[in-house]
């Protein structure tokens, strides 16, 4: 077996909790693809809550989780990662938006109750305040002006409420991509009709776990979890997950299934970062 092998187990599907809002419109198409293939290609990544409930937070794979729940599966194959694992990384996506006039984009946020936008002229200071969590987000418009979104948030739950309000104000009115870029000038050559760049503050794993455990969902497309090694293209048969066998029996079958694939060299470990072009 490999020195570093991902922890893959079959766990109760009703114990999985998503941490962000997701697009329900994508679920029916995914249900059809799962039915057609009969396989779960990439298992969701989950992390256990340490609250004695036996629940897991879904780090990656919310749509797969929702699709399987819609299909009535009792169990799911998942990659389990401890919340304090050194190979687990959480980063924050920013949102590049286009197709909506900048003034409409800006006014949509400015009109939100409890949120005010203030111009910032010192870029270094703006990012310092963002990372110190004294600002909700930074809004950069194509005229290269930066505004701070500010609210008097009392506690993490209210902070998340305001972040959701900001994203809700534009997510259905313009095109949106996730990006790691922090300056809108770097996007001019890639996007036409730029509306704005929304830069979000960093989050910690414990903050996301606490929010999710309390039932607070983060805005879509803000968190980016990565883990090494990552189990991909497992292509596990859905019929095994759907069967009425006890959970222990399913995991015993899974262990044999993995051993067989390792024995016939059907599992490959990439030690270096890999870019795949056949997804």
Largest sheet entry: 6 strands, antiparallel
Radius of gyration: 21 Å
Percent strand equals 15-25%
Q: Mind telling me the CATH class of the largest domain? A: Alpha Beta
Strand-pairing-aware structural class: alpha+beta
Beta strand count? 15
Number of domains: 2
CATH superfamily of the largest domain: Conserved hypothetical protein from pyrococcus furiosus pfu- 392566-001, ParB domain
Provide a count of the helices: 8
Short account of what is shown:
29% of the residues lie in helices and 25% in strands. The chain is α+β, with helices and mostly antiparallel strands and 279 residues long.
Helix-strand layout with pairing:
Blueprint: E1 8-12, E2 16-18, H1 27-37, E3 39-40, E4 45-48, E5 56-60, H2 62-70, E6 75-80, E7 88-92, E8 94-98, H3 102-110, E9 115-120, H4 123-131, E10 137-140, E11 146-151, H5 156-168, E12 175-179, E13 194-199, H6 205-213, E14 223-227, E15 236-237, H7 238-242, H8 247-263
Parallel strand pairs: 2-5, 4-6
Antiparallel strand pairs: 1-6, 3-15, 4-5, 7-14, 8-12, 8-13, 9-11, 10-11, 10-13
